[in-house]
Design a protein that fits this description.
- This protein is an alpha+beta fold.
- It has three domains: 98 residues, no CATH class; 120 residues, Nucleotidyltransferase, domain 5 (2-Layer Sandwich); 78 residues, no CATH class.
- The chain is 23% helix and 30% strand.
- Strands 2, 3, 4, 5, 6, 7, 8, 9, 12, 13 and 14 form an eleven-stranded mixed β-sheet that branches. The chain has a three-stranded mixed β-sheet with strand order 1-16-15, covered by helices on one side. The protein has a two-stranded antiparallel sheet with strand order 10-11.
- The chain is globular, with a radius of gyration of 25 Å.
- The two termini are 21 Å apart.
C-alpha cells in the first residue's frame, strides 16, 4: 500500500469482510508526514558505512518503512517475552486433502473423532506486541498433544533469543498436556521459565489440601472490587502457592511452585458452606501469586484517553486494522471491517489527518452499519 495516495476525508468506510492488515498505518504515516518525518530524515540521517552500497540509496523511504513496521510492533524484544504452545485441529472435508487424518476434538463438551489437519503451533509475544507464529509442525491426528513439543519449545526459545530477548525473561506457557518432564527439562536447560497447567493427581491433590484457607489471597480478576470500608479486594477468585516436586522418581524430577487458583463453584450456591473449584499450575516464575498467571492488558474506551493509552493499546485499536484498498473512479478508498468496535475512534483519527471533505456519520444499509 502506497503512502503517496491523495486521500480524501471521506475515503474510509467500515463495510468490508475481505481485508488486509494494518490499514491504520495510512492515517498514522500521513500524520508523520505532516509532522515533517521525511524532511527530518533527509536532513539528519546519513549512512557512514553499509554492507551493500545500494543499501544507502533512497534511505528516507526505507527508514520510513522501518518506522511503519515499528509502529505495527516489529521492534526488538527487550522486555518480558511469552512463548505459548498448543495443538490444533482444523477440519477439512476433501478426501484427497494431503496431511489430513482423524483426531480427537470436543464439540458441546463431547469428545468425537474428526477429520482434519492437526498441527502443533508455537507463538512468541510480549506485553506490547501481538503473538507471532514461531513454528508449526503438522502431525497425525492420533499423536499426543506433547509429541515433539520439547524440540519445538527449544527452537522457539532460540528464536526469541536471536530476536533480542534474554533467556531469563522468557516464560513458556501451555495447558496440562505440556506439563511433561521432557518439556519442562528442555525449558530449564535453555535458561527460561515455565508456567504449565498441571493435571490433578493424588500428589497434586495432597499438595492442594496442605494449603490453609488463610493462605489464599484475592486475585484481581475482571469483576473484582475493592471494599470501601476495609480496602480489601473482594473477588470470587483466590490464589495461593506451595512448594511442589513434579515427576518425582524420574530423571526429570524438578521442584518448583504449585500455584493454585480457587473459584466458587457456580453450580453450588451456599454462602455458609462454599464449594471451591481448584485450578493448579506448575511454574518456576518468581512473580507474586496474584501476578504469576495474569498478563496485564490496556483498553481504549473513548477518545479522551488517547493521550494516556499505552502504545500496545493504540497499536491494537488504531493501527493494526485490516482493510481493503479500492480505487473507484481513480479515487483511493479504504474498506474497513463492518463491525469494528473502535470505528468512531478510528474515524476521529482519520478526520484529524484528512480534514478535507470529511464527514463522520453512520447509516444502515442491507442490515450493516456503515460509517464514513
Amino acid at each position: 500500500m502506497q503512502g503517496s495516495h491523495a486521500w480524501r476525508g471521506d475515503g474510509a468506510v467500515f463495510d468490508e469482510d475481505n481485508l488486509v492488515s494494518h490499514a491504520g498505518l495510512v492515517p498514522l504515516m500521513e500524520l508523520a508526514e505532516q509532522a515533517g518525518l521525511s524532511r527530518l530524515l533527509d536532513e539528519h540521517v546519513r549512512f557512514g558505512c553499509e554492507r551493500v552500497k545500494s543499501g544507502a540509496a533512497n534511505s528516507t523511504p526505507k527508514l520510513t518503512s522501518i518506522i511503519a513496521g515499528m509502529a505495527c510492533g516489529a521492534d526488538g524484544i527487550d522486555d518480558r517475552c511469552f512463548i505459548d504452545i498448543d495443538s490444533l485441529l482444523r477440519p477439512v472435508y476433501g478426501h484427497a486433502k494431503q496431511g489430513a487424518s482423524f483426531g480427537h476434538t470436543k464439540i458441546a463438551g463431547k469428545t468425537i473423532l474428526r477429520r482434519g489437519l492437526s498441527p502443533l503451533a508455537v507463538t512468541i509475544s510480549t506485553e506490547t506486541a501481538a503473538p507471532v507464529v514461531a513454528g508449526v509442525r503438522l502431525r497425525a491426528g492420533r499423536a499426543g498433544s506433547s509429541r515433539g513439543a520439547a524440540s519445538m519449545v527449544t527452537e522457539a526459545i532460540n528464536t526469541a533469543i536471536a530476536a533480542g530477548a534474554q533467556a531469563s525473561d522468557i516464560l513458556v506457557r501451555g495447558d496440562s498436556a505440556y506439563c511433561a518432564g521432557k518439556i519442562v527439562t528442555a525449558v530449564v536447560k535453555a535458561g527460561a521459565m515455565f508456567s504449565f497447567a498441571i493435571a490433578r493427581n493424588p500428589a497434586v491433590d495432597a499438595a492442594i489440601a496442605s494449603i490453609h484457607d488463610e493462605q489464599y489471597q484475592p486475585v484481581r480478576y475482571p469483576g473484582a472490587v475493592v471494599d470501601p470500608d476495609t480496602g480489601q479486594l473482594i473477588s470470587d477468585a483466590h490464589g495461593a502457592e506451595v512448594e511442589f516436586t513434579a515427576f518425582a522418581g524420574t530423571r526429570h524430577e524438578i521442584t518448583g511452585r504449585l500455584v493454585v487458583r480457587r473459584v466458587l463453584d457456580a453450580n453450588i450456591q451456599d454462602p455458609l458452606f462454599p464449594v471451591w473449584r481448584y485450578h493448579p499450575f506448575f511454574t518456576n516464575n518468581t512473580e507474586p501469586v496474584a501476578e504469576a498467571d495474569i498478563t496485564p492488558a490496556g483498553t481504549l474506551t473513548d477518545t479522551a484517553r488517547y493521550t494516556v493509552a499505552r502504545g500496545a493499546t493504540l497499536r491494537t485499536n488504531l493501527i493494526n486494522i485490516p482493510a481493503r484498498l479500492a480505487r473507484p473512479q481513480r479515487r483511493p478508498m479504504l474498506h474497513l471491517p463492518a463491525h469494528w468496535p473502535r470505528a468512531h475512534a478510528w474515524l476521529a483519527f482519520w478526520k484529524y489527518c484528512n480534514p478535507v471533505l470529511c464527514l463522520v456519520g453512520e447509516c444502515q444499509e442491507n442490515g450493516v452499519t456503515r460509517y464514513w
